[in-house]
# Entry
Amino acid sequence: MRNLASSERSTVGMLHWLWLAAVVIAIDQLTKWMAESNLLEGQPVPILPHLNMTLAYNKGAAFGFLANHEGWQIWLFAALAVIVSVVIVRWLHKLPSDRPWVASSLALILGGAVGNFIDRILHGKVVDFIDVYFDIPFWMQNYHFATFNVADIAITVGAAMMIFIGLFASHQLEG
# Structure
């Protein structure tokens, strides 16, 4: 009987990682609110060398992909976030309890996807505010990376973790 209880627990045990997604969502929304409350759009505020806080809005996806369209892309990206979120929650539900690295990476991606989904639904655009730049001598001065937010960081870290797991511990991805 003990084996049955153990196997049942392993099929639902990873849903407890949803706390990490909730933390990402809360921090993301709080920092976006702080950025909108304290920054003016497009006006950088230096924080550290190579780091500004600059309020920006993105109606598209990463690097402004599809941002210059008439609004249909907002609903496309919102729908994709819902689909990805459902897939991740189902994956977490079925994930054996001995896969915490997979679960944490999925929770980070989920939190980031939901954080940006909230922006798209409430504002019709994603609030970005972290502006990283580099001085590249000789050919370009002040190269600015795309402005991003906490949700984007969570998605990137979660995706990088999944790539690492896939490359070095692919057995962890198997059901």
In short: The chain has a mean pLDDT of 84. Residues 100-123 form the longest helix (24 residues). The beta strands are 45-48, 51-58, 126-136, 140-144. Residues 28 and 80 are 19 Å apart (CA to CA).
